[in-house]
Structures are given as C-alpha cells and as structure tokens.
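Office hours follow-up: a student asked to see two folded examples consecutively, so here they are.
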Amino acid sequence: MDYADQQRSWGKHAPSIIFVIILHILVGYALVSGLARKVVDVIKQPLETKIIEEVKKVIPDTPPPPPPKLATPPPPFIPPPEVNIVVPIQQTQAAITTTTTERPPPGPPPVAQPQPTTQPAVRRNFSPVSRVQVIFPRDAIKKGIDSGTVVAHAYVQPDGTVREVRIVSAQPSRVFDREVIRALSQWRFAPEPVGFIAEFELNFKLTD
C-alpha cells in the first residue's frame, strides 16, 4: 500500500471525526440549555472603571538654603631656612692695674661767674633839663573824658637822653598812653656816669 492509500483509509481519521462530532453536540446543548445566553449576559454587563488620580506631593515654597561658606585654607607652612650663625669667641684679657705716684695735672682755672646786672635806681620827681609839654588827646575829648592820671618810667641813658618809656599805670587805661610816650621820649636830662630810671606822674585835665 502506498502513501496515498494510507491517507485515504478511514481508521486513521476516526479519532478526529469523533472529536468534531462531540464538539458539535456540546455546542448544540449549550444553545438549547441557554448557557450561551448567560455567558453573553455576563459579557454585556457594564464595566465600572475608576480613574485613580495621581497624588501630587505639595512642595512648600521655601528658599533653598545658602551655600556653605568655604573657609579660606591657611597658607602652607614654610619652615624658615636654617641659618648657622658663627659666634666669634671673645678672648677675655686680664685686667692690668697700674699704680702711679704722679700728681694729676692741675685743672682749668675757675671761671668767674657773671655778676648779676643791677637794676638802675628809680628816681621820683626828678626834673629834666628840657621837656616837651603833654597835650590832652583829641580821642579822649571825643569819648567825653575830661581827666586822667598816668604813671610812667623814663629809662635815661648816661648822656641824658631817654632810651625807653614804659607805662606803669593809667586811669583810664590806654587813653593817654600814646601822648605820654611821645612827650617823655623827647625829654633831656643832665648827663651822669650811670643811667637811671625817672618816674613821673602826669595828670591830665581838660580846661575850657
């Protein structure tokens, strides 16, 4: 028997035919008993769908922390160079003491101390050889002053001329000083070996 005859034999395909027949019987029974309808009803039921929302994590609006401050690293340690210092050795010399019997040389002669200058004597009510009359100042008249007193010292040189005039006191102050100095500076005295100071009291009085 060849391959074609083997394929055509009924015994070889019998199991397959029996399985198909049984399957058709089961399908027909399901249709008759309503099992298929229940399956369709179950499929037709509405499906419930739930939408699950994604829960977002709320991040608070806080500013980010400041960056850490980086400390400046210390400078590298550099060891100082080694310097060898040679200390010279000082040789101590023995102290030599000598004694002498010679007398020390005489010192310089004593310096004469300058004698303090003595202030010339003050003469009061001393009459000059020639004098210039004092004048009542116009400034005193403008200020309404009609009288005053001035005490002055005239420094007389040995030749009788007046070297300087100083105001000792004045009443009123600085009203008649210029006129007193002007007049006394032109006074002349008798020459003497030593100069002196002449004190004068000058009274001013405005007359009509």
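And the second, which I mentioned at the end of office hours:
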Amino acid sequence: MTYETVIEQTQKWIKNVVIDCNFCPFAARVYSNKTIHYTVSKATTIDESLQQLKDELELLDKNELTETAFLIFPESFVDFKTYLLLVKKAEKLLAKEGYDGIYQIASFHPDYCFQGSDNDDPANYTNRSVYPMLHLLKEESVTKALTFFSHPETIPDTNIAFATKKGLQYMQMLLASCKS
C-alpha cells in the first residue's frame, strides 16, 4: 500500500464519515481549507511512534496555517489494546513536553470500542477509522471553533444517537467504502 493511497483513504474517511455524518462539526472548514497535515508512519514501536509524534508537534509549532495533523499507522498498532497504550503514552508525552493546553489528541482506530460497550455497538463507529491514527488538534483552534457552536457538550451524544439510528450495517458499509 502506498503513502498516497493511505492519505487518499484517510481523506475519504474524513469526508464521508467525519464530515458527512457531522461527527465533528468543525472538520469541514479545515478539510476544505486544506489545513490538515498527514503523516503516514512506518514506525513499528511505541518509542519510534512517540518520536514521530514529537516531530508532528514541532511541525504544528512552526506552521501557523496548519490547523491539525493526522499521524497514521497503516501497518502498526492493529491490536486495539496496544493502540490504547500508544494513546496513553502520547498523552503523557504532551504533558512532559509542555504541550498541555496547546495541543490535544483525538484517537481513532478501525476496532475502536468504547469502554463498557459491545464490539458491535454502532456507537463505536464515531471513533472508528480506516487506520489506527492520532489526530493532533491545536487547542486554540478548538476553542475558537467552539464559540460558533452552541452546546458543544452535546456533540458526543448526538454522534452516538446518529450512529445508533443508522445501525451497524450502515456504519460498517460506510467505513468499508473508504478503503475501496
């Protein structure tokens, strides 16, 4: 699988799932403005991945016009529990490097499963993606976007209700279509 293919499939997922399902009401603007940076990782260990995360944070620091970044792992962290360990260590890295309040991490994985939910719960598709990935967001951009959205605290419940209403088969088909 080529670097370009991974990015194209990720972009298709952002458009067809994240934006079209309105899972993130702020995504359309950064997507259409092309202010998203994509990195396809060949890292095979957590340490290598954390180094790439540091590189992405530095890139975001240096590029004011880049609002968000995706660090995509097409061949690593296939196991969801191992991926969750990466997320935990990535969040610790943010704190250690002094990035608390500057950046936040959103986590997406093909097998994402909310704690306490059944694997076949359609709600999991609000965080399921074509590949394991870390989504880096600038806190300042998130805060600014939230000022234009009334009741942002309802976003997760609205997303879960949407996915549940659409049902498991629809959500599975939608995600699978992003890789075709």
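Two things to take away from it. The chain has a mean pLDDT of 95. The longest strand covers residues 103-108.
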